[in-house]
């Protein structure tokens, strides 16, 4: 089992910044992908940014150039720096941990991000 604890959400005005953190603990499989997904009211959960344990990252088109994902493997922690936030970035952000080659998928409890116009 892997436990994920998220922090850093909140309310911010458009154009502002927030930084999300997600710390993983438990049975950590070294080769993995960690990432952030979000779900806006009435919409499906979507991928925002993913990063492998080797440091390769990819982003949703809607956040490219504004969001940066990073990780500290020694701390089993992933970060999402969100700049130039827009109202459409509003939603619940979920951390995800996926061990490569395994069927398991682990999710955090979610943290609310609200961007006011």
Any chance you could write out the topology, listing elements then pairs?
Blueprint: E1 2-7, E2 10-13, E3 18-26, E4 32-39, E5 46-52, E6 57-59, E7 67-72, E8 77-82, E9 91-99, E10 106-107, E11 111-116
Parallel strand pairs: 2-11
Antiparallel strand pairs: 1-3, 3-8, 4-5, 4-9, 5-6, 7-8, 9-10, 9-11
Can you tell me about this structure?
- The termini are far apart.
- Strands 2, 4, 5, 6, 9, 10 and 11 form a 7-stranded mixed beta sheet that branches. A 4-stranded antiparallel beta sheet has the order 1-3-8-7, with no helix packed on it.
- It has strands at 2-7, 10-13, 18-26, 32-39, 46-52, 57-59, 67-72, 77-82, 91-99, 106-107, 111-116.
- The radius of gyration is 14 Å and the shape is globular.
- The chain has no helices and 11 strands.
- With 117 residues, it is an all-beta fold.
Query: Ends: how far apart?
Result: 40 Å
Helix share bin: under 10%
Query: How many helices?
Result: 0
Major sheet details: 7 strands, mixed
Coarse structural class: mainly beta
| Average pLDDT | 95
Q: Percent of residues in beta strands?
A: over 45%
Q: How many strand elements?
A: 11
- What characteristic shape results from the CA principal axes? globular
The arrangement of helices and strands along the chain is EEEEEEEEEEE
Low-confidence stretches: none
CA radius of gyration is 14 Å
Looking at this protein, list some descriptive labels.
seven-stranded mixed β-sheet, four-stranded antiparallel β-sheet, mainly beta
Briefly characterize the structure.
Helices cover 0% and strands 56% of the residues. The mean pLDDT is 95.
């Amino acid at each position: 089992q892997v436990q994920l604890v998220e922090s850093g959400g909140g309310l911010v005005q458009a154009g502002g910044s927030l930084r999300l953190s997600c710390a993983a603990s438990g049975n950590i499989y070294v080769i993995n992908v960690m990432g952030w997904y979000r779900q806006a009211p009435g919409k499906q959960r979507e991928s925002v940014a993913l990063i492998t344990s080797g440091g390769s990252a990819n982003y949703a088109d809607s956040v490219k150039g504004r969001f940066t994902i990073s990780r500290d493997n020694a701390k089993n922690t992933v970060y999402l720096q969100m700049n130039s936030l827009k109202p459409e970035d509003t939603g619940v952000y979920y951390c995800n941990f996926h061990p490569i080659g395994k069927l398991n998928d682990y999710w955090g409890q979610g943290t609310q991000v609200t961007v006011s116009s």
